[in-house]
Amino acid sequence: MQRIIDYYYTHASPWAYIGHEAFLALADRREYAVRFRPVSLTTVFAETGGLPLAKRHPVRQAYRLVELQRWRAYRNIPLTLKPAHFPVNPELADRIALAVAVEGGPVAAYSLAVFKALWVDELDIARDSVQRAILERLGLNADATLGQASEKPIVERYMSNQAEAIETGVFGSPSYVLNGEVFWGQDRLDLLDAALAEGRVPFSAP
After folding, report:
1. Which of 15, 58, 115, 121 is the most buried if burial means most Cβ atoms within 10 Å?
2. Strand order across the beta sheet in which 175-178 lies
């Protein structure tokens, strides 16, 4: 079996942010490579029956805020529960992450910076100026990366991620896929770790 974990996520997801560093540390400890696969939840939800936050029942919305506080404390990370620029369209950030990954750049660091921009600093990650500042801080060519993120190959790759996510069984962010087995949510990292340690045959739906 390939020692690769496919990481499906979007930069608008607080759960992806909460689990980001823990997941990457886990993969590194188990000596697995990570394949970064940003996806549009709008597309995934439409195909798999998910609902955007604003359309969920108030009880579910309220519980989400409780869980965010629990996990913020558990992971010991800063997180603003209701940032100024949320909901936000994450597609620019998602496509930039793909462009950075294609060039072999620091995609993990880029995504973490975007997560913090949105969920800590309350910045609008859909703005070119915010993205430019993040890219420059990482020592990347902002003009070239922003341009590449809008070009056909990256746009097509982004669309392919949506189709492959749905085909694989991904329906939310983050999802970690190991040898075809989906682990949905950063609260499944212990189960993913056990699967990596055991090297077992993947579970599948009966």
Report:
1. 115
2. 33-38, 4-9, 175-178, 181-184
Considering the segment(s) 4-198 as one domain, its CATH architecture is: 3-Layer(aba) Sandwich (3.40)
pLDDT, one tens digit per residue, over 104-152 is 999 999 999 999 999 999 999 999 999 999 999 999 999 999 999 999 9
Sequence-ordered strand ranges (E) for 108-174:
none
Give 141-172 pLDDT, tens digit per residue: 999 999 999 999 999 999 999 999 999 999 99
User: Does pTM surpass 0.70?
Assistant: yes
Kindly give the pairing relationship between strand 4-9 and strand 181-184. unpaired
Continuous segment of H or E residues that includes residue 18: helix 14-29
Q: How many residues does the chain have?
A: 206
Q: Which two tokens stand for residue 13?
A: 């997801």
Q: Would you list the domain boundaries of the chain?
A: 4-198
4-9 vs 33-38, strand pairing mode: parallel
